């Protein structure tokens, strides 16, 4: 269950704004539960113990003390596991560095109890298949596989280890400078022998926050950004260089802007220029899990001009073991495409269609319908409502070869002829009335419909069912009426529009 906004706000005020933890009254138990969910129960207890006059209920204090002890034991064991694996890989000549919690716990927090980790994440810089085989011989069993990591469980302890060959899914989108990562790494201060440089760590945290999780993290994970900027301040010039080499400038800007909003991270304004459009209008609680922006929308916004690359690397991600045979890549890509399409294709495409409003030149205008007239459709509605059909003359060639300039079409009202995917419809657009094909509509899901000219590169603006005045039944010709509805043509237009939309740069913030 998501924490209440009041409890989350009280927790944030205590651990982020450093406000005195006065008695929260009936919210005490809920604030403690929120801290537990957000990975900060140990830190909350330590703050309570260090402040005089924090009169919290004894039962709540006791529960937080137990959480803190458990977090300390768990954190020490997890770091010991990370250190043991890193040293074992090093003895085998394989370089690796910690990611996320394992990279921040000993240097950014005063105690291993202050921030909990779900599991241990390590980034293998070379020899990934060899590392997996080595750990299999050391008692680790594979539990899951992603395109950028595998999940291992140590059989005799039950500890979970995520072994990464990339920082995020679709790893080829953000290339790793593996030799540079290792050369810039620094000695650890505790159990972990080596740590990423502050610049590399900040880029990795940003990729994880923005691309991997769509700017939805726990409060403890956002606090990592603030602690890193305060305690291991990256060099701005080197940070920009590292981000540029990883093609991660947009994720870095977006994550830093979010961290500034959520935990008051001290971010230089120059580092957040070009952040994801729409982020500035969100409240901090909207970016704390389980809340958060839509993952697909954030990923699209992070990759202007690289959306085909996103599609390619999502369907056929780069593996850690070198080149993959072409047929194997094609087969794997087809299976992955089918799986993703079945899982979220209609919803994702519907969201893209609903959000991709682009200006385009007018085309397919109905004869006698001047542009600039705000509502020229009243008489047409009346005619189509009173008679079985009406006839209109087409101007323009954007619907060739289905509709030619000067041809007459017969229309029926939506009540008499319900618009369907593939039909040519008379629709009201901001620039006037258009006879365009319905490329997203019934029976496809979604409350917004999309039309497009058969020869046009982009979708028209989203419309609702009420904006469709009529459906073309047929074209009136001397040789006899001819139908123009075509699901195949509509699919072709839809994917041509999708291709154009993928290649468009992001709108200015």
3D architecture notes:
The chain is α+β, with helices and mostly antiparallel strands and 509 residues long. It folds into two domains: 5-322, Beta Polymerase, domain 2; 378-503, Umud Fragment, subunit A (Ribbon), CATH 2.10.109. 42% of the residues lie in helices and 13% in strands. It has helices at residues 5-15, 28-37, 41-50, 58-91, 101-108, 128-136, 178-184, 198-212, 219-231, 236-245, 249-263, 295-302, 307-315, 326-355, 378-386, 487-503; strands at 96-99, 120-124, 140-145, 149-154, 160-164, 186-187, 194-195, 390-393, 408-412, 424-429, 432-440, 450-452, 468-476. The strands form three sheets. A six-stranded antiparallel sheet has the order 8-9-13-10-11-12. Strands 1-2-5-4-3 form a five-stranded mixed sheet. Helix 2 packs parallel to helix 4 (58-91), helix 3 crosses helix 4 (58-91) and helix 8 crosses helix 10 (236-245). The protein is elongated. Mean pLDDT is 83; it is low at 356-375.
Task: Kindly summarize this structure in a few lines.
This protein is of the alpha+beta class and 509 residues long.
Q: Helix proportion of residues, in percent?
A: 40-55%
**Which value, in Å, is the CA radius of gyration?**
29 Å
Q: Could you give the order of strands across the largest sheet?
A: 8-9-13-10-11-12
Which overall shape is indicated by the principal axes computed on the Cα atoms? elongated
Whole-number count of domains:
2
* Major beta sheet summary: 6 strands, antiparallel
Q: Beta-strand level of the residues, as a percent range? A: 5-15%
The CATH class name of the largest domain reads Alpha Beta
- The total count of strands amounts to 13
Mean pLDDT: 83
Tally the helices: 16
Structural class: alpha+beta
User: What do we call the CATH topology of the largest domain?
Assistant: Beta Polymerase, domain 2
End-to-end Cα distance: 34 Å
Low-confidence segments, given as residue ranges, are 356-375
H-E string:
HHHHEHEHEEEHEEHHHHHHHHEEEEEEH
At CATH's second level, what is the architecture of the largest domain?
A: 2-Layer Sandwich
């Amino acid at each position: 269950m998501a924490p209440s906004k009041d409890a989350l706000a009280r927790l944030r005020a205590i651990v982020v704004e450093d406000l005195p933890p006065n008695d929260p009254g009936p919210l005490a138990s809920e604030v403690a539960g929120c801290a537990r969910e957000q990975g900060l129960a140990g830190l909350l207890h330590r703050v309570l113990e260090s402040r005089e006059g924090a009169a919290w209920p004894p039962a709540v204090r006791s529960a937080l003390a137990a959480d803190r002890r458990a977090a300390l034991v768990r954190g020490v064991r997890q770091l010991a596991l990370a250190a043991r694996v890193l040293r074992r890989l090093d003895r085998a000549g394989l370089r690796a560095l910690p990611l996320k919690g394992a990279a921040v716990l000993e240097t950014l927090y005063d105690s291993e109890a202050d921030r909990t980790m779900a599991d241990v994440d390590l980034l293998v810089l070379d020899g990934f298949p060899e590392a997996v085989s080595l750990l299999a011989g050391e008692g680790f069993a594979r539990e899951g596989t992603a395109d950028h990591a595998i999940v291992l469980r140590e059989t005799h302890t039950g500890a979970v280890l995520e072994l990464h060959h990339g920082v995020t899914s679709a790893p080829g989108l953000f290339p790793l400078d593996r030799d540079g990562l290792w050369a810039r790494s620094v000695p650890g201060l505790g159990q972990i022998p080596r740590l990423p440089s502050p610049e590399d760590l900040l880029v990795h945290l940003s990729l994880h926050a923005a691309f991997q999780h769509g700017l939805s993290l726990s409060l403890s994970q956002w606090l990592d950004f603030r602690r890193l900027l305060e305690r291991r301040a990256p060099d701005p010039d080197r940070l920009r260089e590292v981000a540029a080499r990883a093609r991660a400038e947009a994720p870095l800007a977006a994550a830093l802007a979010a961290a500034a909003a959520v935990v008051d991270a001290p971010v230089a304004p120059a580092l957040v220029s070009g952040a994801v459009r729409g982020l500035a209008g969100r409240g901090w609680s909207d970016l704390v899990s389980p809340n958060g922006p839509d993952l697909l929308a954030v990923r699209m916004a992070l990759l202007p001009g690289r959306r085909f690359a996103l599609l390619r690397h999502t369907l056929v991600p780069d593996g850690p073991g070198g080149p993959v045979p072409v047929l194997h890549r094609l087969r794997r890509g087809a299976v992955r495409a089918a799986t993703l399409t079945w899982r979220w294709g209609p919803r994702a495409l519907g969201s893209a269609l609903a959000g991709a409003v682009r200006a385009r030149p007018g085309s397919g205008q109905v004869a006698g319908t001047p542009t600039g007239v705000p509502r020229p459709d009243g008489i047409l509605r009346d005619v189509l409502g009173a008679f079985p059909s009406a006839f209109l003359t087409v101007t323009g060639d954007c619907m060739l070869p289905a509709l030619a300039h000067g041809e007459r079409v017969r229309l029926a009202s939506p009540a008499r002829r319900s618009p369907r995917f593939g039909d040519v419809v008379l629709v009201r657009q901001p620039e006037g009335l258009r006879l365009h094909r319905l490329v997203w509509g019934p029976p496809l899901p979604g409350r917004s419909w999309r039309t497009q000219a058969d020869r046009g590169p982009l979708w028209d603006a989203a419309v609702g069912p009420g904006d469709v005045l009529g459906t073309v039944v047929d074209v009136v010709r001397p040789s006899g009426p001819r139908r123009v509805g075509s699901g195949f043509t509509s699919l072709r237009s839809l994917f041509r529009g999708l291709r154009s939309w993928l290649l468009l740069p992001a709108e200015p913030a």
